What does this fold into?
Amino acid sequence: MVRQGLAVWTAWALAMALASGCGPQAGAPDTAARRAERDALRRTAAVKVFQEARESAVNIGATRADAANPNVRQTEFGSGVVLHEAGYVLTNAHLLKNGGDLAVGFDGGRDYPARVVAADASKDLALLKIDAPERFKPIRLGRSEGLMVGEPVITMGNPFGMGMTVAEGIVSAIGRSTQSEFAFYPEMIQTDATTNPGSSGGPLLNIVGELVGINTTKRLGADNIAFAIPVDTIVEGLPEMLDVEGRFGFVLGMRVAMEGRPEVAAVDKGSPAEAAGIRVGDVVMRVGREPVASGVDFLLALVDCHGGQPLPMRVVRGSQFLDMAVTPRQVAPRQPDKAEGLAAGVAWAAYEGQWQTVPDVAGLTPAKTGVAATFDLGEFAGKDAFALKFTGYVEVPADGIYAFYTASDDGSRLYVGDRLVVDNDGLHPVRERRGFIPLLKGKHAVTVTIFELSGDEVLKVLWEGPGIAKQPIPASALFRAAAGGPK
It folds into this structure.
């Protein structure tokens, strides 16, 4: 409808220009001025949006060896958008599901290798980094709040690896939920703009060229039913997705507003930020060598920071510019436990009851106990109104920062020693949460508790770390106290 409307408007405008004598006349000399008049009539809103955003929308390829024939290389295509001039690119996490060497391509033929900075499969979002000396043009961020049904929108993407392609349509609906083979997507923007394989991760733009969503999935077997993750959801979830302090093992102790100007919203007591003199209400202007104009800029400026290294920071307090040096505190890695006389697997205890949150089972009598090779619901799959507590040790193969994940329905928690690493608590459908902890090589006490009130029963416990891609914790890395062994 929008495409037809734009065509009618263009024809009408050209007819009016010809009738008024302002446009090109039959038989008149084709001067530069007349060509400029024609070009102005042809330069629709969609053309203007493409011309502004073409340097910010990117093609992405993930190339890997074919499973059946290692001598054959195959590439999976996707799309993305430049989020920061330092080369940070936002895309869909499902593009990474099969691994491979990543390359980011720009309209015009420039290609760059890229690496994964962060990914959240539950939200189907990933952040890549182009490591190159060039600066790149970031997309202008808009707001998805206030989007109007029927509002014109424009998509850019890399369908079937053909290269940058533009389509236009309208917002068909707001707040739609959908399910794909990769994730469950709540509160999505539905559009009728053409979306094909390879377009995932590309920008959804409003008519003034602002990013309002990331194109993610479509309804299979349907015509022109596509869905985009709202930009407000992305921006609000970026601190959790990046978790820069946990990911890089340091403590800064300050939070900056993600909406509007980058104003300091909180400063932790006893933190490096407080020690450096940062106050609530300060507006961050620069971190290190990176200018900061938004909360997104602030978070990305902290990527790859390390504890113990002074971090120059410029803030505005009232009308005064202040230059400060904040030294993030390095998080000490956890020492391994002195655990001997262990057996393979983890111990579990089951409890009967109805809970709304993960229960403290310390004072409860278990209805049943047992041993499992891994974190698995076992005989409790398909049952309701229970809680399970797993205890044991996980052996990490090298010093470093490890990520642990739980995916559960309903709530779950994971502790390493007495530290809560993953908090996935509450009543909810299957949901994945993640946390980071620095560990030294060796065996570390681990506890996982899950409760189920009703509905689906799911528990997955995964890890990721030095030399370990994200995967379920294998049985070979799990141990428990044997009879007469440590408790």
Observations:
- Confidence is low (pLDDT under 50) at residues 1-12.
- Residues 307 and 329 are 5 Å apart (CA to CA).
